[in-house]
Design a protein that fits this description.
Distance between the termini: 17 Å
Helix content: 25-40%
Shape: globular
Strand content: 15-25%
Number of helices: 5
Structural class: alpha/beta
Length: 185
């Protein structure tokens, strides 16, 4: 379990499910539907939902591309963390938010698989969090023009290597949406 003391709770971390991030992503509708289902379930089970929203030169704050997709609406009491780096912890309030919620275990969903999702997973694990990736609730765009593998292979590879990720005293891994366990009794 987490190496963070006094952090027994789990949170659903929704990363960058924004119009300009998932607009051209592979399996966009299915991934957004899976994320929406997990958000609804987390709310019913009183599990914190923490939203992360990226901004940069291509995702200008306040623009249509920057907005979270219309299928998802952060709740008024749900934290929304703004970021400008891939790792959602870098120069953000995420650690403070999670500490205040007593969260030491993250269920991670969102986009893009090979950028912000991957960076945040690694960032979480090295900071002492348990980090579980929902294997059918993350996606990415086609970056083959820049030498990347096709998006379905990027997603499959990330699921493959995160499935067996390990660190002393911490848990990592993958789980399908239907098998997510928020650890609520």
């Amino acid at each position: 379990m987490t190496t963070l003391p006094n952090r027994p709770k789990t949170a659903l971390l929704v990363i960058d499910v924004q119009n300009g991030v998932v607009g051209g992503a592979v399996g966009r509708d299915a991934v957004v539907a899976n994320v929406a289902g997990l958000v609804d379930r987390a709310r019913r089970e009183r599990v914190p939902v923490v939203w992360v929203q990226h901004s940069d030169a291509d995702l200008a704050r306040g623009s249509e591309e920057w907005r979270i997709v219309p299928e998802l609406t952060p709740g008024d009491s749900e934290p929304l963390v703004e970021k400008s780096y891939g790792d959602s912890f870098e120069e953000t309030s995420l650690e403070t938010v999670l500490s205040g919620l007593e969260v030491g275990r993250l269920i991670v969903v969102g986009a893009q698989t090979d950028a912000c999702v991957r960076s945040t997973l690694h960032g979480a694990l090295v900071r002492g969090y348990d980090a579980i990736l929902v294997s059918d609730a993350h996606t990415t765009e086609d970056q083959t023009a820049w030498g990347a593998p096709p998006p379905d292979q990027v997603i499959a590879h990330t699921n493959l290597y995160w499935k067996d990720q390990a660190a002393p005293g911490r848990t990592a891994g993958t789980v399908e949406t239907k098998n997510v366990d928020f650890g609520v009794s």
